[in-house]
Fold 2-isopropylmalate synthase.
Amino acid sequence: MNNRIQIFDTTLRDGEQVPGCQLNREEKIEVAKELEKLGVDIIEAGFPISSPGDFASVKAIAEVITEATVCGLTRARKEDIDAAAEALKPARRPRIHTGIGASDVHIKHKFNSTREKIIEQAIWAVEYAKSYVEDVEFFAEDAGRADLPFLAQLTQAVIKAGATVVNLPDTTGYLLPHQMHHRITYLFEHVDNIHQATISMHNHNDLGLATANTIAGIQAGARQVEVTINGIGERAGNTSLEEVAMILNVHKDLGFTTGINPKHLFPISNLVSNLMGMPVQANKAVVGANAFAHSSGIHQDGFLKHAQNYEIMNPEDVGVPSSAILLTSRSGRAALRHRLQLLGFELEKSDLDKLYTRFLLMADERKMIHDEDLKELVG
Ligand code: KIV
Ligand code: ZN
């Protein structure tokens, strides 16, 4: 099996639909260009039928993106698919992403329909989208809670209808990693034509398991992952691009590759956060402000002896300028001496000991000690 994982970024669709995260057309184009530089394979540019502005943005992105596939979302409806096809016309590599609910709760309470009718509508939608573009992705919404034999039947039917990718979203972030692994394995064992399509993971983070479930899906055979920058998205968000990219990069032993250039991760995280006005939590993996910051005395001492004592990635490799040693009352003499040396102060051991006692008093009071505070201490 091919071990190259396709990175499908949905920051501009599933991420951007979060209240307060809306971007204007120019901002979306800027993000799309940076996503292309980052090396994503597919950019989901929006949901063209949803508003004239979104339609125009998808079209504008389709005009400027040259390497990545540009994708537009639709429901399994004629007017949606027509709008997506129109917006994607300028794209060099267009993809229509159409689909419908697959769990009984969605079939009954959202569509007031039956499993049989859902399969019929799914086949129709894929065939209709295929009349416009070759590359059609089908999403089985809420696949995470769908009846598994029915999901296998639906997957088989949409692949037969021409779907090139089948997306099996855990829309509600419900599954545990071993359950995701089991479900994808089951589909590989029960869907005869599954190797004619790429299986995609699209996981939400309601229980904080989106990334773990995505990796479990890859290990069971999925070869596309749907992710967003900083994990932004509905409710608790989507799977975070930077986490999946760096898990596959750090754990080369797993044997998977992506087209992502990690050096762009931190800059694009900042760009998206600033444009959307959505701060990144300080302890966010890979791109958070504290991801490469060391604050306790034991860690700082070990880090100063050898960075690999406490770092599994180099900050520069993900575009973070450098690691940081934060000075607080939990810091030890090693960190204090290191910072003083950077400021040009070389102290004898006995002087450092005396200064350290005063440093702790100041740190208890001020919480964080900055260079200005240190200069004040040295006098
Ligand atoms: O979470 C989800 O199920 C989705 C689909 C529309 C792909 O975002
Ligand atoms: Zn989603």
In short: Residues 349-366 form the longest helix (18 residues). The longest strand covers residues 94-101. The mean pLDDT is 97. The CA atoms of residues 205 and 237 lie 5 Å apart.
